[in-house]
Specification:
Layout lengths: L2 E6 L19 H7 L2 H4 L3 H11 L5 H11 L4 H11 L6 E6 L15 H12 L4 H4 E6 L10 H13 L5 E4 L13 H10 L3 E4 L34 H4 L1 H4 L3 H8 L5 E4 L4 H6 L3 H11 L3 E4 L10 H7 L9 E2 L13 H14 L3 H8 L1 H7 L8
Parallel strand pairs: 1-2, 2-3, 3-4, 4-5, 5-6, 6-7, 7-8
Helix pairs in contact: 3-4, 8-9, 16-17, 17-18
Length: 376
């Protein structure tokens, strides 16, 4: 039986702007230090010294682990470590989500998306990686390589037709609305070919870092303001306007058969409380035939387990929740093997292992299959 982790990342820091590493309470100085490429170029000795200096601080070792992974020289090294984590699970396939961070005003990016995609293509040519790596192309409609909506479609098609890519990744928190008019030709192409989309649907540390006044105003036609935050000048707060589930109502009302996963189930605390964005996601799942969500990152909080269990036991929802972890981003909170094994063990203890398997097999297979790829 093939298992699928439907939400992973293997991009190295050469694809990340200089100013993206999040400030993490008392660990802000450590994360800032580890983000300086010139200090380490991810020299293991520097990271080991950081471990000795900061290792006594709560959470410091997780941040250092995160740095050791992300600072690897290549995506291949990051992927190899991911595979090692899952060796006891047998045949696991990984949705690998690329990222385009050039437009987020986070500082210089050493290498662009095109280089990242080329590296993925070369990595998939090795061994049985073509079966194990299921790559998604990240699209930011603001990138100057896209003159209009049709040019976005022209850009992605060869990656599907020639190079084995299977889906589209969106990350609106970087500073755009997913219902941007330039995106609709891509959405229609995806719907016509049953191509899956995974979109970031939670707030976090990777977001637009520039002046909020330069962003699209929330009162533009088609944009849905998050009323509590739409006047904030803090981009960390303002990102909620871009990531909220309500934005997808405008898209799905026009293209109701679009296959899209609103990742991270909205928010771990709201999922536990049974309110807010997770409930909005559930409503979209109940209304539209191809809307999904995943449990990536949020399962670092074991308090989400009963809520996810409930969704996996509820008609319609049970078919639309995907297993995913958010490797390696989540490693700042919990190690990959602990994260995945803790949730799976919980479901086994509840005598619900079949529901876990459904999220990692049949649900994933249905979501990932398209004109270009049939999930085995």
């Amino acid at each position: 039986m093939n298992l699928y982790n439907c939400h992973t990342h293997i991009f190295s820091t050469q694809y990340v702007p200089d100013n993206v590493v999040g400030q993490q309470d008392h660990l802000g100085g450590l994360t800032k230090f580890l983000s300086i490429r010139k200090i380490s170029r991810w020299n293991p000795a520097v990271l080991n010294i950081a471990g000795k200096l900061f290792g006594g601080w709560p959470g410091a070792n997780r941040v250092i682990t995160f740095a050791k992974i992300g600072l690897a020289a290549t995506q291949e090294k990051i992927f190899d470590q991911l595979v090692d984590y899952y060796t006891p699970w047998g045949d696991v396939r990984f949705v690998v989500l690329t990222m385009d961070m050039e437009m987020m005003q986070g500082g210089p990016v050493p290498s662009n998306l095109l280089t990242q995609l080329d590296e993925i293509i070369r990595l998939r040519s090795k061994g049985n990686n073509a079966d194990r790596i299921l790559p998604f192309i990240c699209i930011d409609p603001r990138n100057p390589r896209y003159l209009n909506g049709d040019s976005i479609v022209d850009f992605v098609k060869p990656y599907f037709e020639k190079y084995g890519f299977i889906g589209i990744k969106l990350y609106p928190a970087l500073g755009y609305f997913p219902q941007d008019a330039k995106m609709f030709p891509l959405y229609r192409w995806c719907a016509n070919n049953c191509v899956p989309i995974i979109t970031h649907c939670i707030t976090g540390v990777i977001h637009y870092r520039g002046d909020v006044s330069a962003l699209p105003p929330v009162n533009n036609p088609g944009n849905v303001p998050y009323v509590a935050d739409n006047n904030s000048s803090d981009p960390k707060i303002y990102q909620r306007n871009f990531t909220q589930p309500r934005n997808y109502s405008a898209i799905l009302s026009e293209i109701p058969n679009l296959k899209i996963c609103l990742a991270h189930y909205g928010d771990d605390k709201e999922l536990i409380a049974g309110k807010g964005w997770p409930q909005e996601i559930n409503a979209l799942i109940q209304k539209y035939p191809n809307v999904y969500t995943d449990m990536s990152y949020i399962i670092e909080n074991t308090g989400t387990f009963p809520a996810i269990q409930k969704s996996l036991s509820t008609p319609v929802l049970e078919d639309r929740v995907l297993f995913g972890t958010d490797y390696y981003v989540v490693s700042k909170a919990k190690l990959e093997n602990e994260l995945a094994n803790d949730f799976r063990s919980y479901m086994i203890q509840q005598n619900l292992h079949t529901l876990f398997l459904k999220s990692a097999t049949t649900n994933a297979q249905k979501f990932l299959s398209s004109k270009f790829y049939t999930a085995p």
